[in-house]
Amino acid sequence: MAIFLIAIGLLFTGLDFHLVSGIQYPTYVKPQGEFLGTDMQEGIQQNVRGYILGDSMQIDIFPDIIGCILIIIGVSMLVKHNKKYLSCLLLAVISGMLSLALRIVPFYINSAAQIVTTLAIFTLVPVFEIWMEYTVIYITVGISDDMANRGTNRRMQFCWWITVFARIFMACLTFSGLFGVKHWYEAALFLFTLLYLYQLLQTRKYVGVYKVYKEGFNSAVVPDYIQEKMRGVSFHENRDISMDELRYTRVLYYDFNRQVQEGELIVHKNIAWQTMRAFYQLYKFEYPIEKIRLVDEYEGDDELSMEDNNTSAFNYRKVEGKEELSRHALGLAIDINPKINPYVREDGFFPKNASEYLERDVEKCTGEHKEKMIHKQDIAYRIFRRNGFEWGGDWSHAKDYQHFVAKKK
Question: How many angstroms separate the CA atoms of 198 and 192, rounded?
Answer without folding.
Answer: 10
